[in-house]
Amino acid sequence: MADGRSRRGALAIVLAMLAVLAAAFAVELLPRLTRTAPGIVYAPVPLGSRAPAAIPLEPGQRVCQQGIVFDDEADVVELLLDLSRPLVRAPLEVTLRAPGYAQRLRIVPDEHLLRLPFEPPRRAAAGTLCVRNAGEAATTLSASADPRVLQRTRAAVDDGAPLAAAFLTTFRTRDPGSLLSGVGTTAERAAAFSPLGPWAFWLLLGLLALVLPAALLAAYHVALRDRPKG
Question: How far apart are CA 121 and CA 100, in angstroms?
Fold first, then answer.
């Protein structure tokens, strides 16, 4: 009888722990997962990279970076003018090119952070991103000289030799989304690296959500069953 009460007490403790975890998820994690915000899809040269640098552009000069992936989920590209210098309102022409895909954008800066909406390709494609100073005054792009970044891409001015820097570039979604709403996209991208398809991702997610609590209960049950009687 005492052993039965011990098991029921242990089970009650486990259930209470699971209830506390569920409440913490509902109060703390769920609002974060459902909070909407423009999501970063791809950041080949992210803001905050180590070894900050700058790339000056004289009127008419163009700087390009190769090996940039234009994702079919991203429809906003962000660039940054050098924050250490006064804002220059020289118009900029931004060109995105990949096999079978091309976009030409134009912006007159009204702040240092530039956000340019564009039409994404139907499928993700690697190509070249260029920025041309179409104004009559020199301007400067914020860049990074981080060696880790330069392993992926480097900037080149007017098709010259690659520089020891790459201008900051981030691709985002125009419409706000949430971490929870991006689970389906994550499954699709994971499927690209697996011959099993998206169902394997959903199966793994279901196992994590259902099997782990059941395994915890079973472990407590086995531990109590095998406990030496004193």
Answer: 9
Secondary structure letter of residue 75 according to DSSP: -
State pTM to two decimals. 0.63
Closest CA to 129 of 140, 139, 116: 116
Amino acid present at 25: F
The C-alpha angle 217, 222, 226, rounded to 5 degrees, equals 155
Tell me which residue has tokens 């509902």. Answer: 26
Is the domain 40-172 a CATH 3.40.50 member? Answer: no
Q: Domain spans of the chain?
A: 1-34, 40-172
**Six-digit token string for 216:** 């915890």
Q: Report the DSSP beta bridge partners of residue 98.
A: 101
State the DSSP string of 133-163: E-SSS-EEEEEE--HHHHTT--EEETT-SPP
pLDDT (tens, 9 = 90+) of the chain, 230 residues, equals 555 555 566 556 666 666 665 665 555 544 544 444 457 788 999 887 789 999 999 999 999 999 999 999 899 999 999 999 999 999 999 999 999 999 999 999 999 999 999 999 999 899 999 999 999 999 999 999 999 999 989 999 998 999 999 999 999 987 665 445 555 555 544 444 445 555 555 566 666 666 666 666 666 666 555 555 55
Helices (H), the chain: 2-24, 30-34, 147-150, 183-191, 198-206, 212-225
